[in-house]
Amino acid sequence: MAAITVQNVTRIYQKYSSRHRFKTFKSALIKRDFFKSLKPDELVTALKEVSFKVEEGTAFGVIGENGSGKSTLLKIVTGIVKPTSGTITVNGKVSALIELGAGFHPEITGRENVYINGIMLGLSKREINEKFDEIVRFAELEEFIEAPVKTYSSGMYMRLGFSIAINVNPDVLLVDEVLSVGDASFVPKCLDRINDFRRRKKTILFVSHDLASVRKICDKVIWLKEGVIQTIGEPNRVVDAYLQDVADKQEEDFEKRIRQQETVQEDKYDENRRENRWGKREIEIKKSVTKNLDGIEKHVFSPRDGMIIEMEVEAYSEIKDFAFGIGIFNSQGICCYGTNTILEELEPAFISGKGQVTFKIDRLNLVNGTYYLDVAVHKRDGYPFDYHRNLYSFLVSSHEKGTGIFLPDHSWKFSSNIRVKRTGEKLDLER
Amino acid sequence: MLRLYNNLKDLYKYRVLIQNLVSRELKARYRGTVLGFLWSFVNPFLLMVIYTIVFGLIIGPKDPAFGDSPWKYALYLFCGVLPWTWFAASSIESANVLMVQGNLIKKVMFPVEILPVVVVISNFVHFIFGIPILLIFVPFLGKQYTLFLLFLPVVILVQFVFSLGFSFLVSSLTVHFRDIKDILTNMLTFWFFATPIIYTETLLTERNSKILDLWMNLNPMTHIMRGYQNSVFFGEMIRWKKLGITFLVSVVFLFIGYYVFDKLRDSFPEEV
Predict the structure, then answer these.
(1) Can you say whether residue A96 is alpha, beta or left, with left for phi > 0 and alpha for psi between -120 and 50 degrees?
(2) CB distance from B20 to chain A under 8 Å?
């Protein structure tokens, strides 16, 4: 049986808040343009004809970028927000971990808040009496339960909220990005509790940006993009498709940014340019681009990708003393690598007219971040012909999380008395 | 109509929640103060002292009902100011309550309609705390207890129904038109002086002005205040007919207020 059935749900929001409406209310009185506020360009479609079913006893994940309609969907399932059109049916008691401790009153004690919040979530006083110790114990707030909630830290606040909501013992649990506040010891506890739910064959609807958790917890995932279901299916497949989409978008943004920078630079005065580019240009680097190994111009790379730096150069006379150089800097200005043709014992013979210089990196092996490129052509003694300082940049992006500069190819190995598990694996398979 | 009735009946279902929220409101209000709950008594008492000094001693009552006694006048004043405070405070708080508790509306599945109810009830509790103060002062300020005190609960009931309807209306409309909050504050001041609270009804009726008479009769607060004054101050029978009509009007008003609230309910999560 389906625990949650969502059918053709559309939700449209007014783009502006009531403040704007006031403007139209006032202008409606003055200009009599009563219908202006109904113009379609002032509406935002948060969800568009979304349909899916969540079977009883499954964990269902919802992923997507900010503003893709995830939270709206959850609010509609909870019943807080009504869909503009479409229907929604939920079987069983629902508890939502959306805003933990939303109903807490700061002035009264934790104990009193547990009772009021519990009643708000549909528990009777007797049920709360029974569960009270468990709630406090789980929240690890035994010492503070008699203190006013306003004295709590945000973590304590959230723990108490989570503890109450999870002890409501619902048939359907809705979780929205709530685990982000918890500390390193509380989050696993919460995840354990959520897994406990799965084991007891309860239904979970899980909204998160933490893709590792989604992979870990969910049986099925839907990916929302701009309010429309993009893909629905097996977690790893959907998460990978989503990550690919994010990478594509990054590339696009980065290119846009570079293009903007270029136009800005052209507008700048020579004075400013001198800082970034100098030399008399007897040999000129007319253009420099970064490409992937397939020769396609690119600005976003994975650490395992190779990169080609291609320079178009022109020498205005025949020159016999020259060297080409490359430098890669990270965003803190630390030189990650620098080299030139002289250092690599490539003795110059001659250069004349137009030509191309290509610098190929087989594997970047850099950690995530923005990097800046120096490209230069100069004399053996360092006299610059044309020096481009940090004029080009590229982005290394991946879900590998190591820090530093260098990302070597690596792997872990453990002897048999040490057991680890991959985050992507489901906890159920563990024991 | 039936749906409205059923919805109002649902309020009964939430009585435990309402009860808890009211006690939370009351606990939170005086938490951290030295006098704590005593403030519920001290506030109306001090208010009475101030009104007595200003209107009783400085301005001086002219009405024959007080027989030139500022003490009697103080008692008369208190009969009206105390319930008026309940009404005004719950109206102003209602105008804010949906915005203040926006978290509950936006983030939790919560029966929103109980918020104005909680406001009216928690102010009602404060009012109830003031009643003993009022009654204690009756013999000291030159009046006697009469059997008509027994009608006090009837008057309170009428005011309760009227306040509730007004709160529903104000709270839901303010979400869309925030100006109401400011309009309301001024309107309540005007309303206060337009109701026989600091003066007696006769002051207006003896002018023989049709407009004034009409206003007096149309203003539900006139009849409610008169109810308090009759049973505590004048020691007279409450005016059954007028108060009865006021009650009926209040019930209708409650339905209208709830109807508007119910109509606007779906827009709350978006607008607060």
Answers:
(1) beta
(2) yes
Give the C-alpha separation, A363 to B248, whole Å.
Answer: 84
Determine the Cα–Cα distance for residues B122 and A87; give it in Å rounded to an integer. Answer: 38
Torsion of the alpha carbons at B145, B148, B149 and B150, rounded to the nearest 10: 140
* pLDDT tens-digit profile, chain A (431 residues): 788 999 999 998 876 554 445 544 555 555 554 444 444 457 788 899 999 999 988 889 999 988 888 888 988 888 888 898 999 999 888 887 777 777 788 888 899 889 988 888 888 888 899 999 999 999 889 999 999 898 998 888 888 988 888 888 888 888 887 666 667 778 788 878 888 888 888 898 988 888 888 888 889 999 999 889 999 999 989 988 898 888 888 888 877 877 776 665 554 444 444 468 888 888 999 888 999 999 888 888 888 889 999 999 999 999 999 999 999 998 888 899 999 999 999 999 999 999 999 999 999 999 988 899 999 999 988 899 999 988 888 888 887 878 888 999 999 998 988 888 776 555 444 44
Contacts of B21 (CB under 8 A, 6+ apart): A116, B114, B118
Bridge partners of A204, per DSSP, are A59, A173
User: Following CA atoms B23, B29, B33, B38 in sequence, which dihedral angle do they give, to the nearest 10 degrees?
Assistant: -60
CA distance B185 to B189: 7
Q: Which residues of A touch B102 (CB under 8 A)?
A: none
Of B16, B106, B176, the CB nearest to A18: B176
Q: In what order do the strands lie in the sheet with A203-207?
A: A94-97, A172-176, A203-207, A59-63, A220-225, A228-233
Report the alpha-carbon angle B271-B15-A163, nearest 5: 70
With H, G, I as helix, E, B as strand and everything else as coil, classify residue A170. coil
Say yes or no: A25 contacts chain B, CB-CB below 8 A. Answer: yes
The tokens describing A379, both together, are 């004399």
The single-letter DSSP state of residue A401 is -
Spatial distance between the Cα atoms of A319 and A161, rounded to a whole number of angstroms: 74
- B residues 173-212 lying closer than 8 A (beta carbon) to A: 175-178
Token readout for B266 is 């779906």
Structure tokens at A296: 């396609």
Which residues from chain A sit within 8 angstroms of residue B269, using beta carbons?
Answer: 75, 80-81
User: Rounded to a whole number, what is the distance in Å from the CA of B31 to chain A's nearest CA?
Assistant: 7
By C-alpha distance, which of A201, A202, A239 is closest to A220? A239
Contact A388, A158 (CB under 8 A): no
Q: Which two tokens stand for residue B148?
A: 């008509």
What are the tokens at A431? 């024991």
User: Inter-chain contact A80–B178, Cβ cutoff 8 Å?
Assistant: no
- Angstrom distances, CA of residue B204 to CA of B68, B82, B196, B208, B236: 19, 22, 9, 8, 20
pTM for the whole structure: 0.73
- Tell me which of B20, B23, B108, B174 to substitute to probe the interface with A (most A C-beta atoms closer than 10 Å): B108
ipTM for the predicted complex: 0.75
* CA dist., res. A164 & res. A167, Å (int): 5
| Residues forming beta bridges with residue A172, ordered by sequence position | A94, A203
Distance CA A55, CA B269 (A): 28
What CA–CA distance (Å, rounded) separates A111 from A132? Answer: 9
Q: How many CA atoms lie within 13 A of B74 on its CB side?
A: 26
